[in-house]
Amino acid sequence: MSPVELAQKLKVRFGNLISEPKEFRGEITVELSDADVLAEVCAFAKTDLGFDFLVDITSIDNYGEDPRWTLVYHLYGLGHHGALRLKTAVSEELSEVLTVTGVWRTAEWHEREIFDMMGIRFRGHPDLRRILMWEGYPHYPLRKDFPLAGKPTEAPEIAFTEGAPEEGGPFVTVAGGKDAMSREPRARVPESAPADLSTGLEAKETPKQPETPGVETKEFI
Amino acid sequence: MATEIQYPDPAARLAAGAASPAADELPDMHGEKMVLNMGPSHPATHGVLRMVLELDGEIITKATPEVGYLHRGDEKIAENMTYTQFIPYTDRLDYLAPLANNVAYALAVEKLMGLEQALPPRCRYIRVICCELARVSAHLLGLGSFAMDVGALTVFLFTFTEREKIYNLIEALTGARLTTSYTRIGGLSRDLPPGWVGQCRQFLEEVVRNIDETEQLLSRNRIFVDRTREVGVISREAAIDFGLTGPNLRGSGVEHDLRKEHPYLVYDQLEFDVPVGSVGDCYDRYLVRIEEMRQSVRILRQCLEKIPGGADNAAGEPIDIPDGKTVLPSKHKVLTSMEELIHQFMLVTEGVNAPPGEVYFGAENPKGELGFYINSRGGGTPYRMKIRSPSFVNLSILSHLMPGHMVSDTVAIFGSLDFVMGECDR
User: How far apart are CA B384 and CA B80, in angstroms?
Assistant: First the structure.
């Protein structure tokens, strides 16, 4: 059975909660409009549709849009070799979704990572702790409003109090700048970040980008 | 206590059985449980993995892996640079097989751009050669250190001798031994150097002999077998449930290999077998890796035979997508032609022009399925890139696998799971 047919079966079972399957580069994506039934949908996909293998869970920060978070589940069936991408949106106020650890145990670490990096909580998770960052770290680094250079804190025992050792981190590429300095500033301070929380790099003041006619200036973040 | 813990390890089962009747009569014999911190800097953890082990005597009752000591924020970094600029960062994921990471990443971006079919055949063959050389290299190291951890130092010296030859080949091919950065979006950084195919053939002759010798040293070695057989048994169901991939999944008897099921590059035109285990213990995972190396050698031989353009590429087969808008044009053309100059400028300043959309591409890497999920909103930079690293997922089974084993089994289990922390922590 092809992934499209499997997606249609999912749609038959859950009706309007599941969007029409979308295809891009040979991959099938369906969106789930109500995150509350996520665990139910996943359990159905596993038991009835043969998606016994959870490849990955990812989160996306749609900064400035509502709902802010998108969760992306990559399902795979070892029996039928079909893959399906399941997406669902979660609002910033809620920032919480049901765990699927009861369906696939591999979800445990993926969900911990999302909690660690994005700050989305998983209801019913057996051990929701930070995984890559350390316990007590105050920020969520993969959020779009977290600057690449890191944020200082007032708590020296749990986090850096000033910019990271290689201050500014790797180069940022901003297309369309007039010279190398403006195209590749050492760090980009997001407009939304309050001055006191940013890296202390504003003293160096990255030059404002000129609006070059003909060259499209990209808005990042 | 005995009811809640299974004892997969025979020695542990014996020890627990001997202790339990006495436990009813002499409660003092069961003291407090001890917590042992293993790592983050421990020779058997192959990097910076920390295990918090709760011990009852010598038996592990609870194990908590702590990862993240090598976290560098690669996914965050990827959002801030063009697709091409991220290639060197992929070297540092699984740093035992950088070539395979380069290829997987390039294929993911090419999938997003819809260029899968446009890749020239010579490029595909060279990429398969890269992947399989990386697999042999990674498995040689994995086996060497696995054997060393359970007490067989000779194997380590044997496998490292061969690995050195691979590194020399990689150096001749890419100019670097470790940080290869060999692929480009839509091509390769350079063609095979003169004489390389001959050297590679010579190496394949030598490595099969070495693999045989390694197997003779280990497969019937009493100490090695005692320490690995029936130790760290992962059932088929558990392996799937915990999302294991690569040799660890196949060691448990699941025939899942992305090179067979979703062939990329030219894997569908090559003959090779996928070895699977039957028990799922450390010994099976070792056997699977040995056989995978032999299959890789088989693939390499076919590639060297069938590569379009032959060894020296006298016919001038392209190795890059020749549309001029994906890979940097040649310097000569940039200096003499307006069109190429513009393409060069756009590629360097803005990067390749990817369409909006999202793709996931998983490649069968030495450690398992290395996947890149790219969410693009158009342009030369990903909006979000997630790296699905096999080592991270493979390690998540530890807290389920460890309880009931002896402390000394941890090194055998670590060695057989064959993880790399650079990839796990990203």
Answer: 10
pLDDT digits (tens, 9 = 90+) for B65-96: 989 888 888 898 888 888 888 999 999 888 88
- Return phi, psi of residue A22, to 5°: -110, 140
pTM of the model: 0.83
**Residue that is written with structure tokens 């690669």 in the block:** B74
> For the complex shown, is ipTM > 0.90?
no
- Rounded distance between C-alpha atoms, residue B52 and residue B37, angstroms: 5
Using an 8 Å CB-CB cutoff, list chain B residues near A134: 68
Q: Do the beta carbons of residue B424 and residue B389 sit within 8 Å?
A: yes
Mean pLDDT of all residues in B199-213: 91
Q: Which of residues 147-206 of A touch B (CB under 8 A)?
A: 148, 169-173, 175-176, 183, 188
Decide which of 1.10.645.10, 1.10.150.120, 3.40.50.2300, 3.90.700.10 is the CATH code for B74-323. Answer: 1.10.645.10
Half-sphere exposure of B15 (CA within 13 A, CB side): 17
Distance CA B197, CA B176 (A): 18
The CA distance from A102 to A123, in Å, is 11
Average confidence (pLDDT) over B185-189: 89
What lies within 8 Å, CB to CB, of B110 at 6+ separation is B116, B119, B185, B186
A167 Cβ neighbours under 8 A, 6+ residues apart? A149, A186, A187, A199, A201
Separation between Cα atoms, residue B14 and residue B8, nearest integer Å: 11
Could you tell me which chain B residue has the CA closest to the CA of A218?
A: B379
Q: Give yes or no for residue B376 having a pLDDT over 80.
A: yes
A129 at interface of B, judged by CB pairs closer than 8 A: no
Return d(Cα A136, Cα A153) in angstroms, integer: 12
**In this structure, are residues A108 and A101 in contact, taking their beta carbons and an 8 Å threshold?**
yes
Nearest in space to B86 (alpha carbons), one of B351, B322, B413, B419: B351
Nearest-angstrom CA–CA distance, A88 and A80: 24
Instruction: Tell me whether residue A129 is in a domain.
Output: no
Shared domain check, A154 and A112: no
Helices (H), ranges, B115-271: 121-149, 153-174, 196-218, 222-228, 236-241, 247-251, 258-261
